[in-house]
Specification:
Catalyzes the hydrolysis of glutamine to glutamate and ammonia as part of the biosynthesis of pyridoxal 5'-phosphate. The resulting ammonia molecule is channeled to the active site of PdxS. By secondary structure, the chain is an alpha/beta fold. The protein contains 5 helices and 12 strands. The strands form 3 sheets. A 7-stranded mixed β-sheet has the order 2-1-3-4-12-11-10.
Length: 191
């Protein structure tokens, strides 16, 4: 398979995503400058700290190139990456890429449960996925064109809108690559 997936390499769980992509048999490229986006078929925006990543996005003039990329090609945002994709952030005027039609709430599981694992069902992808949540956001509501892939109670934790995919959890940390594989399939269809 000659697919190359970029992993936005500004801050956060970059190396783990590279390993997950390679474990799925695709090539991975750590993206540190906007011009490298021309070399990849899809992009993963990792978890980390969305405000820190945004500062670096601005410092390296990444915002418009990322928006343009995501309009054409598949993007997978995990945790902080999900926040970067959202059209609305609850209790904030901040919008980053503003492309995936959803309202997210940052750090929504509260202090007691800052980090935990939960076995979840991901529609069409996995019956029993061990999802790792780290100071995770939740998706509070989604637009009509957004497909909800997984929830915990009434908290939405995975969605897809066309070629945009987002999870509140860290799929690269579970040692189970089905979510990454799903993204690579999405990329192959479009590449
Ligand atoms: N693991 C994560 O990516 C946490 C996200 C972080 N709490 C934020 O708001 O950006």
């Amino acid at each position: 398979m000659d697919i190359t997936i970029g992993v936005l390499g500004l801050q956060g769980a970059v190396r783990e995503h590279v390993q997950a992509v390679e474990a799925c048999g695709a090539n991975a490229l750590v993206i540190k400058s906007p011009s490298q986006l021309n070399e990849v078929d899809g992009l993963i925006m990792p978890g980390g700290e969305s405000t820190a990543i945004r500062k670096l996005i601005d410092a390296y003039a990444f915002l418009e190139p990322l928006r343009a990329f995501a309009k054409e090609k598949p993007v997978f945002g995990t945790c902080a990456g999900l926040i970067l994709l959202a059209t609305h952030i609850r209790n904030s005027d901040m919008v980053h890429l503003g492309l995936l039609d959803m309202t997210v709430e940052r750090n929504a599981f509260g202090r007691q449960r800052e980090s935990f694992e939960e076995t979840i069902h991901i529609k069409g992808i996995a019956e029993d996925f061990t999802a790792v949540f780290i100071r995770a956001p939740i998706i509070v509501s989604v637009g009509d064109d957004v497909d909800v892939l997984a929830s915990i109670g009434d908290r939405i934790v995975a969605v897809q809108q066309g070629h945009l995919l987002a999870t509140a959890f860290h799929p690269e940390l579970a040692g189970d690559h089905r979510m990454t594989e799903h993204f690579i399939k999405l990329v192959s269809k479009q590449a």
